[in-house]
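Now for today's protein:

——
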Amino acid sequence: MATSSLLDPDLDSLLPGGFLEQNEERGPVVKNWAPQAEVLSHDSIVEAVYAGVPMVAWPLYTEQRLNRVVLVEKLKLALPMNESENGFVNASKV
């Protein structure tokens, strides 16, 4: 895939027919990921670990479950959020 197509992908060819029109009232469709390294290296950003900000590891999909294991068990930088059988976390646990 060419670099220009990565920067501005043709969503009509990637998504099911009519998807953008059917969902335009629900919210925007983001074409690209934010440049995470650039955002986190900005002077106005203070890393959570450095600042002592409490963190919870609450995986929603894909590699986030592995991230939870690393953050909670290996690095000991976060507390785990464990869902109930129905997939929810109640407010008292948070």
Observations:
- Strands lie at 56-57, 79-80.
- Residues 6 and 32 are 8 Å apart (CA to CA).
- Helices lie at 3-7, 11-14, 19-23, 36-40, 48-51, 64-74.
- The chain has six helices and two strands.
